[in-house]
Amino acid sequence: MQTDLLQEARRQAEICNACRYCEGYCSVFPALHAERAFSDGDLTQLANLCHNCRGCYYACQYTAPHEFNLNLPQALANVRQDSWEDLAFPRAAGKAFQKSGVMIALAAVIGFALLFWAVRALATQGGEGFYAVLSHNAMVAIFLPAFLFPLFSIAISLRRYWRQVGAQRLKAVHLVRAFGQAANMRNLKGGHGDGCNFEDEDRFSQGRRMAHQAVMYGFLLCFASTSVATVMHYVLNMPAPYPLWSLPKLLGVSGGLLLVVGCVEMVRLKLRADTSLCAQGAFGGEIAFVGLLGFVGLSGLVLYGLGQTAAMPVLLALHLGSVLALFLLTPFTKMAHGFYRLAALAADSQRQ
Predict the structure, then answer these.
(1) How far is it, in rounded angstroms, from Cα 185 to Cα 200?
(2) Residue 147 — pLDDT band, cuts 50, 70, 90?
(3) Long-range Cβ contact pairs of 210-215 (< 8 A, separation 24 or more)
(4) Looking at the predicted structure, is the pLDDT value of residue 126 above 60?
(5) 268-287 per-position pLDDT tens digit
(6) What's the average model confidence in pLDDT over 252-273?
(7) What is the pLDDT of residues 101-115, one digit of tens each?
(8) Which residues lie below 8 Å from residue 332, measured CB to CB, with a gap of 6+?
(9) Domains assigned to the chain
C-alpha cells in the first residue's frame, strides 16, 4: 500500500483521537477512539468501516483553512481505494480497472456480446425463447466458470484483508451483526440519523442510503430470480421460458427495476457531490461500475419487454455480455466493496 496515503490518514486519525467531537457519528469513531496508535492494518480497517457520509467533515472545526487541514473522509477514502487495489487477486487487474474502468467495462460488454453472437451456432434445434438463440448447455458452460472465478478471487482478497487488519477467528454472532448493519445501511444514516451530507453540507438526506438499498436489494432479487429458475429447471423439471406471474419473472423484473432506479440515483448523487471528499482518481472506476450494473438491469428489462420481437437475439447478446462482464470484473470494481464492508463490520463487532 502507498505509504504517503497511510501516513496522512494516520496523522488525521491521531488528531481525531485527541478531539473526540465526532464520537457518535458512525462506527468509525468508536473504533478509532479505542486505539492509542494506528498500525497500517488499523487504518485499513477504519477506512473500510467508513461509508463516506461526510457528516464528520462538515462538523469538524479543524478543516481548511485551519492549519490541521483535516479531511478525514478523503483520507480514509484514499486508503480504502488503495486497499481494494492492493488486496485484489490478481492485484494488477484491480489497479488497471481503477485507472481505466470505463474503457475496460465498455470493451468487456462489447467483446462478450460479440462472443455470444458468435456462438449462436450452438443453439439447440427446437429450443424455446432464448434457448432458440443460445442453448442452455452453452450458457451453463460459459457462466459457471464466470460465476466461480469471482467467488475464488474475492475469497482470497478477504483472507488477505482479515490478516492485514489483525482480526481473530470469526464467530457466527459477529457475522450476524455485520449482516444486520449492512441490511439497513446503518452507517449511512449519519451521526444523528438524519442521513448523509453527501450533496450539500447544510442538507441532510437519506437519498444516498435509499439508493444503496435499491441497488443492493435489486441485485439480490435478480440473484434470487436466477437461483429459483435453477431449482425449477434442475429439481422440478420446469425449464424456461416462464410466464410473467412466475416467481423467477416477478423477482427478476422487480430486481431489475430497483437496480436501474438505484444506479441512476447514485450517478446523480455522485455528479452533485464534492469530489474533494472522495478518493483521488476513483471517480471513473466508480462511474464505470455503477453504469455497468445499471446496464445489466436495464438490458434485462428491455430484453423481457422485446423478447418476442426480431430484436431479441441482439438484445440477448448485449444482456448476456453485460452480465458476464459484471461477473468477471466484480473482484476489481466497487462491487467488491460490499464484501470488504461486511468483513470490516464483522471485525468491528469482534472488537466490541
Answers:
(1) 20
(2) confident
(3) 210/265, 211/262, 211/265, 211/266, 211/269, 212/185, 212/188, 212/262, 212/266, 213/185, 213/262, 214/258, 214/259, 214/261, 214/262, 214/265, 215/258, 215/259, 215/262, 215/263, 215/266, 215/293
(4) no
(5) 998 888 888 888 878 888 88
(6) 94
(7) 889 989 999 999 988
(8) 88, 93, 94, 96, 97, 98
(9) 3-83 (no CATH), 90-351 (1.20.950)
Answer yes or no: is pLDDT of 165 > 80: yes
The reported pLDDT for the residue numbered 61 is 92
